[in-house]
């Protein structure tokens, strides 16, 4: 028996006409939700006034938000994008993103690079080539902590890929690169700093970094110094973490860790140091918010060069 096809008098077509307004309304609502919200901020570093020799709270209420931990921040080489990780107490960390557009910086939004492959993502780093973002991903219980990355596409990012390198044989985090592409990171399993020289965009070897102490290390663009955090080593009565710097010497070895002193450190914990792509600023987390939470602070890298040993 031949099945009849409904015409303009049939109920199926009438039903379609009736639901069209609902579809259009849903699309309109979806579009409204997709509209990017912009902040009235222009210029690099979210339009914030640059600090000098005294650390300043970075982008309060926008990036440094009361009631959560902020830790690990990275700017694109052109300083028109920022990625950072944050989490509320008793929650897993996530990566947030903001971009400078014609209308200003976009309101930071959460990204999900692994799309559920890993529940927690943190410590982003935008490569100097601006083609990749490296980050740490792990399980909710902080196991299987590895380095992942995404590639930049035309208007988005690729699927996340776990870095294929011996450095991921251990539990690792806080990866960053110098201009030449060499990797520096913290080996959590061994609680030491490591580095992996780049060879044709691969990292075939993981080597212990010969510095006296420190974790959450961040290399300067030209590898002339590295900043780390460690428990204060000068006062046995103190239990807080400070930021230290090791300078690379002419023979390739590193100086002893030098405390950045009152110019950066306090009796609160200072952790997760970052050097900006232009080499001009040091970012770090300071755990001075009520409840022991951390915010981002930034200061001129003059505070680092001021403690460089005289030859």
Structure report:
- With 311 residues, the chain is mainly beta.
- It has a single domain, classed as 6 Propeller (Neuraminidase).
- 9% of the residues lie in helices and 37% in strands.
- The protein is built from two helices and 21 strands.
- The protein has helices at 11-34, 302-305, and strands at residues 56-57, 68-75, 81-88, 94-101, 104-105, 109-111, 120-126, 132-138, 146-151, 161-162, 172-177, 183-187, 192-196, 207-208, 215-219, 225-231, 241-247, 258-259, 270-275, 281-289, 293-300.
- The chain starts with 10 loop residues before the first helix and ends in a 6-residue tail after the last helix.
Task: Provide the descriptors you would attach to this structure in a database record.
311 residues, Neuraminidase, four-stranded antiparallel beta sheet
- Percent strand equals 35-45%
CATH superfamily: TolB, C-terminal domain
Tell me, what is the CATH class?
Mainly Beta
What is the end-to-end distance? 98 Å
Helix content: under 10%
* Annotated CATH architecture: 6 Propeller
- The H-and-E topology, N to C, reads as HEEEEEEEEEEEEEEEEEEEEEH
